[in-house]
């Protein structure tokens, strides 16, 4: 205790008397968890920060710039603080605290450190300042208004004006009647910028919103980036794209989808810089295990911090390939060759190591968390954050499509570099993966791909769906034309657009759950245009324009039924959301740019030119371009050439459909819909004449619900619970109960990942066809809606071989320690340095069969949602003759803080077909993301103090199963 007090006193001595000496900050959802609000000294050892806070239930902590220090009210649970009440702070990490705010105001956060052992927090709302009536920002100018209906029968209006409507580069004033997410004026001003394209459509509002996207792209174009977890929170030089107003760093997936959607077309050099930032080789002096593949330098794509300690729990770093392909199409020829070589090396190294660490040969799919849906409790079963090995071994549609994209791009680059053998290898893997996605994940009864499977011991594709994965499957060609039509017709749309997941998760706030993300809508629009679905495209156009117009910015996300940037639920404050929401979110900006350039005007880059395939719907034409005979995209630059594109429009129609391209003229001469670069001059006039109205596809699924309903028709049930298994001769009884207060739900039993019984009432089910190794999981379903739950924790009847670390057959260079107040069993503590060794000898297998070999462990290197210190090791099983019968990577992801009721954590399994006999198991090093140079300044485990791939070992288990 005395050491903690002395350390705290030393810390307090560093606290600032002036802003330039910032040390501790109030960091929360109201400021993007950044360092904008420093605690500054106001009296002896008393520090304050005044923060303008909008409505919401805001998570926050007191923390240092690099998160090496965190102060929370209770390190074991979140606390909602009441204004004007003192709270003692614990000076260690823990769950965030919450401040509930009904109305925008300034809040004073005061930290009193006069007792170093017990600093005290008090928050008070300051008196509101009287303000004069705001002047009309459009005064004296013609105004164009866009009106949008609300979910509750009202109307919101966005208004636009320009002081210089005839200027070559206009400026705009843009206001909104809607309550904005963040405090500030209800209007913004921005202008068109030289070097960026502009549009002229006869509709000032439509022109302005495209200018807004360009303006926000420029705002996100920075010369340095920062994140509190890196470089001590100090700036890192990089001519890159920052992620948004509240997110000042570069993340692989955010950048990649943003670049693919639109940014690479406008600023390929900055995209390339950002892509380079997300590549890394090995840290100096790190021993590299012999099983690791790739070039000696290890150059590969970085998987950002995340679930369970990052890769390979999460494997969507392959999304980098989407941006790389688009950048290769748009970089000047003088720079393309060098980037192509580097991209091939990085892709190849990443592909080869993901094949070792994340590929499941039994299913032909890659393991790993869903792409971008990386808040586990938002889109996975409620029990999964405590058992991340199950998430690590699940297969998701979105992530598998990113692997498909990476394989196809790497194959093309290999052929370009005359490496036929490597190209053939990756082409083969891509074809096999496409086939596996369609065989394993397509749900014929739903007419869509499953978003994800259950984890090991189950493996069934779930009746859960996500718009990003489905859209990516369409645009990459994983889905054929019939599947694309089916997906677009079946995925549900609310009044404001398509949610990112379906059905919604009960009891969860808005973020990924119950949300629209504009970048996902951008991919939905791309898929709809490609497949000719007019209704889905019109819904996407409306979503993107409404979101930007009413929020005065391209927001990170919106509540999906109301379209609000914040749904303030005072009855259920824990469900308020979106939990965090940033203006000018990079991939939202990219989606809007792509909507205009690629979908409306039809311009997209190809390997050796441009494609021209506009998708102008009748609704878009009559509602936005009604008075125009033509619309123009001016000054689009590609490979140093200027493109001016004019769409000549037919008369507006009251029917729905899209307009076919009648003819294309390049500089007055007939042209095809794909134009090669060599056909282009320095200045090119492209005229696209739209002709007859095509009906296209009109099928769309519409759903509606009350945004405040906690368990309405848009939700799935909670997953049920198997209470235990009872064996009786050749039969097994499976007792189960609902996971919550589900009304009218029925239940299904899955045996070894296959449906065994359906439409059961709660109670129990008797399996008279049980095998000696069966594993069971349960699923709930609402008959009225068809919405289903995630699967329960699986339970198995197979025999176990359990060996604790105190068993004399355990061989380790680190000896076990006795149980203590935190751990109820002996453990080998902190095992995992590259030179550490662990083996289990003389394991007698009496019954031959398929076994899942797992470590019983605990990894407390970081929280389950953070870090780069997933335990990633190489496991080998040898028979009595010393022959290897199974080998591969196993993972020990971060686990919840150990306490009496913490579930036992087991590693991901290594499957081994074992005959009767004696075996030896050996474990050695592999690697995790902390071995990469890019993480050498990370503030947590695996960062500045060196790579970290360690955990506690409690024992080993061999579980006999059918799978």
Automatic annotation (TrEMBL):
Pfam families: MGH1-like_GH. Residues 1-19 form the signal peptide. Keywords: Signal. The keyword Signal applies. The keyword Signal applies. Residues 249-546 form the Mannosylglycerate hydrolase MGH1-like glycoside hydrolase domain. This is Esterase.
